[in-house]
Amino acid sequence: MASARSSRSLRRAAGIAAGIGLAGIAGFGYSAVVEPRMFRVRRHTLPLLPPGSDPVRILHLSDMHLAGNQGYRSRFVRSLAELEPDLVVNTGDNFGGDTLPLVLEALDPLLDVPGVFVLGSNDVWGPTFKNPARYLTRRTTQGEDKSKEPTLPVDELRASFEARGWSHLDNCTSSLTVGDTALAFAGLGDAHMNADRVTDTHPRFPSGHVRIGVTHAPYSRTLEAFAGAGADLVLAGHTHGGQIRVPFWGAPVTNCDLDRTRARGLFSYRRSRVHVSAGLGYSPYSPVRFACPPEVSLLMLVGRPGSD
């Protein structure tokens, strides 16, 4: 009888182990195959314009990380022109390797729309293998050794965007007029690779109805600099929204010094509104997303309440 009970216990343990294994395989398959194709367009309305102004539609995209086997992602990006944005803001990390032609093909319809952009570290250096567990156990991978020479065609990417009319904002300012609204931009380089240049005179916004700060990685020092300069809105990416989120709890990390509860979405920072995009992609060495679907955001700027 003892032998029979032992046998049943062993079969039960084996069944539980098999179930856990199958659940793990199913979860990985979902994270690697299904969720990365579940693209979303998040929509937010922000009353930042003078009363009575016509709305301005801003498409914020980030962290495309486009690789050669991701035609599904390219097709989604091309389809975004159907949203008819007035302005595109690209907050960097376009490459998933040496994929300049693929990136330009994906963005081609949007490059006909006025736009501004900053660059991320993955626009400069190609991806390298890292232990994925380190991402979950460290707040940030900033400061890791990288070659000083770019390994990706970042200059060609920048020139291609500028040739189509997009303004490069790494540590620069720019202005655009959409309808009757003057938009003033100030940008900072990617703080994750210490490319942000905060000085006594930058960031400083040109004159305009709305002041918009743009950077890749939302480190607290960049948010502080933009807020101190009077930004109405700050746009960033980099965090991937955590990429692997715990349901009902959120992102375990942000890969910067931003609090994990601010890994994606809209939040207030001093008197500024900040929007962090969870982005569209991932590193080829961590090709999964869980409870964090790939996304872009359509931000509708509207007039503040008041008389026209």
TrEMBL record:
Domain of life, source organism: Bacteria
Which InterPro entries would you find in this protein's record?
Calcineurin-like_PHP, Metallo-depent_PP-like, Metallophosphoesterase_sf
Gene Ontology molecular-function annotations? UDP-2,3-diacylglucosamine hydrolase activity
Keywords attached to this entry: Hydrolase
Give the CC-aspect GO terms. Answer: membrane
Task: Output the Gene3D superfamilies linked to this UniProt entry.
Answer: 3.60.21.10
Q: Name one GO biological process term.
A: lipid A biosynthetic process
Provide an example Pfam family for this protein: Metallophos
Q: Which residues form the Calcineurin-like phosphoesterase domain?
A: 57-241
Q: What is this protein called?
A: Predicted phosphohydrolase, MPP superfamily
What organism is this sequence from? Brevibacterium jeotgali
